Amino acid sequence: MTGTMTEAAGAARGPAAGAVTREMSMQQAINAALRTVLEQDPDTLVFGEDVGALGGVFRVTDGLQRDFGAERVFDTPLAESAIVGMAVGLAMNGWRPIPELQFDGFAYPAVDQIVNQLARMHYRSRGAAPMPVTLRLPSFGGIQAPEHHGESLEALFAHVPGLKVCAPSDPQDAYRLLVQSVRCDDPVVYMEPKARYWERRPVDTAAGAGDMPVGRSRVLRPGRHATLVAWGAMVHRCLQAAEYAAEDGVELEVVDLRWLKPIDAEGLAASVSRTRRAVVVHEAPLTAGLGAEVGSLVTERAFGALAAPVERVAGFDVPYPAGPLEPQYLPTIDRILSAVQRTLEYERP
Amino acid sequence: MTGTMTEAAGAARGPAAGAVTREMSMQQAINAALRTVLEQDPDTLVFGEDVGALGGVFRVTDGLQRDFGAERVFDTPLAESAIVGMAVGLAMNGWRPIPELQFDGFAYPAVDQIVNQLARMHYRSRGAAPMPVTLRLPSFGGIQAPEHHGESLEALFAHVPGLKVCAPSDPQDAYRLLVQSVRCDDPVVYMEPKARYWERRPVDTAAGAGDMPVGRSRVLRPGRHATLVAWGAMVHRCLQAAEYAAEDGVELEVVDLRWLKPIDAEGLAASVSRTRRAVVVHEAPLTAGLGAEVGSLVTERAFGALAAPVERVAGFDVPYPAGPLEPQYLPTIDRILSAVQRTLEYERP
Amino acid sequence: MTTPSPTPAGPDPHPGFGPDLARRCYREMLTARRIDEEAIALQRQGVFPAYVSLRGQEAAQVAGAAALDAERDFAFPTYREMGVALALGVDMVGYMASHRALWHGGLYDPMASRFSSLNAVVGGPVPHAVGWAVGERLRGGTGCAMAYFGDGASSEGDIHEAMNFAAVYRAPVVFFCQNNRWALSVPNERQVAGGSVAARAQGYGMPGTAVDGNDAAAVHRATAQALERARAGQGPSLIEALTYRVEPHSTSDDTSRYRDAEEERAWRDRDPLTLLRARMEADGSGDAAFFEQAEQEARKRAEAVRDGVSTAPEPDGTDLFAHVFREPTEELARQQRVWYEEVRP
Amino acid sequence: MTTPSPTPAGPDPHPGFGPDLARRCYREMLTARRIDEEAIALQRQGVFPAYVSLRGQEAAQVAGAAALDAERDFAFPTYREMGVALALGVDMVGYMASHRALWHGGLYDPMASRFSSLNAVVGGPVPHAVGWAVGERLRGGTGCAMAYFGDGASSEGDIHEAMNFAAVYRAPVVFFCQNNRWALSVPNERQVAGGSVAARAQGYGMPGTAVDGNDAAAVHRATAQALERARAGQGPSLIEALTYRVEPHSTSDDTSRYRDAEEERAWRDRDPLTLLRARMEADGSGDAAFFEQAEQEARKRAEAVRDGVSTAPEPDGTDLFAHVFREPTEELARQQRVWYEEVRP
Ligand SMILES: Cc1ncc(C[n+]2csc(CCOP(=O)(O)OP(=O)(O)O)c2C)c(N)n1
Ligand SMILES: Cc1ncc(C[n+]2csc(CCOP(=O)(O)OP(=O)(O)O)c2C)c(N)n1
Ligand SMILES: [Mg+2]
Ligand SMILES: [Mg+2]
């Protein structure tokens, strides 16, 4: 297999045969993906807090109960552990559950069921009990929300054997990754960047999930001076940073990681082997964040090529703050550019 | 401040003035430390499942209820979330709680109270509500126990802002770190390496907690060819590996990290600046494990000195297995030595 | 759809709720109402990013909390207990600061106020109340903990664990459920199996009472009894105050998607302030002058809170780092330097 | 200390428990007893690292599970339901393999056996039963889920959440609590507030029954009724089988630290096998020849299980990697290569 990335910026490709391209927000794209799988696979079920009549607090499940019935799309009582536990039992009875936990910070009460049960039932049963569960989790910050509504749990999930984890950064990929996650026979945590729910982009709903295998990253912008690696909402910020850098003649390659487990180590190494420098950017606190894993993978595979240590630009090691401090907590374009500068100026002591 | 480590192997130091040195197992040393804090601080409380009359499943709390009364040392019903939640409330009423969760894998049901409450209450209250809670967690594997009794949650905890995390590797340090954790005004997760509970070593119970600040690592064996970094039970395994390597003339430095948050980045960098090579060893699964953080810290601070990428030897990305497979899952001496060899033979491509 | 039950008639069933208490409750309920209205306005003006209204729950909150002893008791709120905060004398600008998103937990001092920081994890603070109460008994104190939660929260595992712990330890806790019939878009019928939160109490061997949560006197009496019991060492109890969330869940919510406007109207007609005022007019504990004065005071206070919270300074970026630990770490100091050099506005 | 209540006298209160069923239950209870004894012996010999005995709970397990329909129902066990496994026809060597630590979940096929993999998280599998049951109703099936848990587990939040979900959805689940009076070292008095797990059911609007868990007929009847109800679409119910853990929690436990030997002896005298045998001798459903034959069969079966599990091959290291994912990843394949090159024995 080759670890190189197969897709340049999605927008740059022409529409595929049979393409149905519409302009939509990520929240609509996720809704469309749920419609696709509810239509195509009678075993799929959508449930969670307020996903029914309300259509979810972000309207991601808008109209699904109306269109697919209250048996396929239903509200649960307010208890996250039971939501995931129920998904495990449903999977054992042949269903393909797509539970939602309302917000990142409310996944914590479900961690036992996620780690000790969902992620392990297939292993524990020696393959007898598949767990094709897609756990949707509105994630990350940037919307000035109350406490527990702006957190990034990817490092926790990526560390759990038996889980797969992904996070889209734009509507097209949100559609594709969700269809792919639901079709995957393993449990997938699908992390939705809330801050990107609303921006509209063209989405080809005929785009197959199969054209990019699980675990593949994307180069959204090619460049030769350094590689920026990000996922979720930070991808957009990295693209902005790359714009600024370009004004100064610095060509940054931007990699959208997409799959946070498995991570596209070969793809990252290939990019960094060309650019010789890398900056990984995430919202979660720095220490023991997924940036450490990305940095380690890159360093292990491209040490000889690296001209400087991989830089990490991350949230600070503080609880996710309220409104006015949020922009000072999240990685800023300035911080990204400072890191780029440090890596460009690095001289081996 | 200097980041250098202040202590060579504890056993090599002479007894301090007023020393009360006895041979004891780590489980006895922890019991002794609990006695010390129960005696010296009337606000301390010890509670958890079966810690009272039974004295804990590992007898770590043996005799404490008898000697300090059922008000200071008491059993709880079987509910981990409430155990931690109760600790938060007790701290808000001026107590210094020392709850135990019976096993690593049963910390998951308490993760919400640990992350969303215990770790944040001080922050949320802008410092009004201190959380001097020491959460004791029998941890790590190596004892051929049932499922959920052999896991390593340090990466999860180290990622949580507001928590401190430590893990001793021998009886003396178990005593010292526990007294230090209890006296710390911040919440500390104290991870006990079950596999090391029984080996007896001399312990000086007059050793102050103050002689090594929170966050300091220890060089247990000096060496010049490469640095091995580990914590908990893997420290012992690294010391064994270093013995073998020494037979081949390879001098490995062994660093016991001790504090998993904050991590002694300066201390690590100082060691690696001398040895130019590092291997980090842990039991937890590789991906997004704390080894990634250790590797990143070392690489960021000592990139110029590094002759090879930091090697990681970790558990595989699989659920912690049952008995006969446990020795094949945990990092073996062979794997550690292979990694050492790789780092010694590394040539920049 | 649920409709309110009729106001009880006949002789006054709440003899303990005297004129002074009625007046105090009315004043504070009205103040809570006016602050609530100001808050909704502030959200519309963009000063608050969002707001959760307590409208309709003023009796459940104020009259219940009026039974607390602010010297020795301690309340553990969710995100909707503004009326409790008011009754306990919490600095209301500091409280409202949370809704302006100045600081998640609010800017008041929870320890001095004996009112824990606002808590957004549904069910999360309830075990804290139990721990606090266990600690209170251990030190021989006579305080009680009051644990607030909603009908939706009653589904969370933490509520069960906390009630079981409290009853096992006979801890002085009052579990105070405001059943406002809705948990965001989910009604009691699909949330609370069996239909009654109060009925859960029996399973733990503790008393459980459902009261008309819009009847200030009934709420006060039930709470006072539960506190008395707890203080006497007889252990915890559970009160279910039956009320209604007449506003949307929060200012971001749209109730037309899931509930009947008729139901809302019916409950608006059972406004706890109207009910209390009618009662006070009937028994003479409030005359026109009192109500007029209460209105003026409430408005004045609400405007002061509005002005205070609107003009409160934004927290400084150093606050990001200041409260993480009591014993700071070098790594956090290093990160603060990064913030200072690369982020500070 | 708790003492057993006396055996009920008077006319047979369980007419549905006929001779065939009694004989089947007796045979399986005895077989479970003999396998249990072999297992304790295997632990003493060092073949099992540890073992959790079901001794004293054979009636609760076998007679309850005998009411299940192995074609359409599904059981969700903890780590102590060996008698249930036996009654459902699970491959007992595969079951016991878990105690030899060959594979945590056992080596039997949980889907084919309709008996989920052994689960060591107290309370953890109970929500699975609810999900399974909700799924069964959604597809129009008539199967029921049986959720096993202990008195200690009743304190966990998951139990509450699961019961509430089941009752809200009217899911066909039977919550089957074996209250063996002890959760490791903690007795009911300090575990189950209110003293009755069955009493919790009412709070969810579902039936809750406490039965003498050492009386096979009583257990069977209660379970059959609950299943009938669930199958008829009337929703979940809760059974509390009052029994006793006569052995230590596990072979690593030491009961002398926390309970009275007298209590253990009293309960040993209420042995469910002795009780059932007496009943069968009285009503003529078992004669000396039957009991003799049952004993021989049980021994033979137990020895076969013992031999099978003792000689079962250890799992291969490749099993470490084989079952993590259905759709394997390159990274795991890479790690397997590391294992192959550096670890493989
Ligand atoms: C653990 C958790 N899960 C989900 C949420 C999201 N959420 C916030 S309020 C709410 C409904 C709460 O209903 P209820 O307990 O009845 O309180 P009310 O809002 O009616 O006062 C939900 C689902 C949350 N805050 N915490
Ligand atoms: C979530 C969780 N916490 C703690 C434990 C450790 N533990 C194993 S069994 C047990 C006691 C269980 O008691 P009970 O539910 O009454 O079942 P029994 O052992 O009596 O059958 C404990 C505390 C566990 N397995 N799971
Ligand atoms: Mg509500
Ligand atoms: Mg028990």
TrEMBL record, chains C, D:
The keyword Cytoplasm does not apply. It catalyses: N(6)-[(R)-lipoyl]-L-lysyl-[protein] + 3-methyl-2-oxobutanoate + H(+) = N(6)-[(R)-S(8)-2-methylpropanoyldihydrolipoyl]-L-lysyl-[protein] + CO2. Pfam families: E1_dh. Its EC number is 1.2.4.4. Its cofactor is thiamine diphosphate. Residues 27-314 form the Dehydrogenase E1 component domain. Keywords: Oxidoreductase, Thiamine pyrophosphate. Residues 295-319 are annotated as: Disordered. It comes from the Bacteria. Residues 296-306 have a biased composition (Basic and acidic residues). InterPro entries: Alpha-ketoacid_DH_E1_comp (IPR050771), DH_E1 (IPR001017), THDP-binding (IPR029061). The branched-chain alpha-keto dehydrogenase complex catalyzes the overall conversion of alpha-keto acids to acyl-CoA and CO(2). It contains multiple copies of three enzymatic components: branched-chain alpha-keto acid decarboxylase (E1), lipoamide acyltransferase (E2) and lipoamide dehydrogenase (E3). Belongs to the BCKDHA family. This is 2-oxoisovalerate dehydrogenase subunit alpha. The lineage of its organism: Bacteria, Bacillati, Actinomycetota, Actinomycetes, Streptosporangiales.
